[in-house]
What we know:
Layout: E1 4-11, H1 30-33, H2 43-51, E2 54-58, H3 59-65, H4 76-80, E3 83-86, E4 102-105, H5 108-115, E5 122-125, H6 128-136, E6 142-148, E7 169-176, E8 182-188
Amino acid sequence: MRTLISTAFVSLDGVVEAPGGEPGYRNSGWTFKDVEFLPEAFEIKGREQKEAAAMMMGRVSYEAFSPVWPNMEDFADYKVMPKYVVSTTLTEDDLVPNWGETTILRSLDDVAALKETEGGPIIIHGSATLTRDLSDAGLIDRYHLLVFPLLLGAGKRLFSATDKDTQKLKLVESETYANGLQKNVFDVVR
């Protein structure tokens, strides 16, 4: 069985929208505009590339990352890694040719079936809607959260407001940095 890991930049109030400067959000770029950059706080991002065997995204994140990440040295390990895009509308013609093997999954059932296969961990980047849906379906196994000391108010949230049973998490790694960032790694307790 494969492990699904959600990795996210998140404000203290749970917002994950437009951390890298994506247009259309009032606080776009909040990860680099409002908090001092400390390389050690982002060590986990490099480790994720080394430890993951595949990458998963929703359509919106795929459309944001695929024109940029294939040519970025910082994300070189992801270029050769298999990718899965969960989308009901994306077609094979929409996939970029220079980012390695990419498979389109059409449903959460497809994701659940993928989890049952052999292979290493699958890392989920961005993809707020997908992460919420996977979390609500009980398919996420681990969360890698870089929590920023900011309150952003409105914006896409990492977790849904669905009324559901308590989902217990176990803190397996944490660190606080001089710029106020907190790294929290949680395993989902089943």
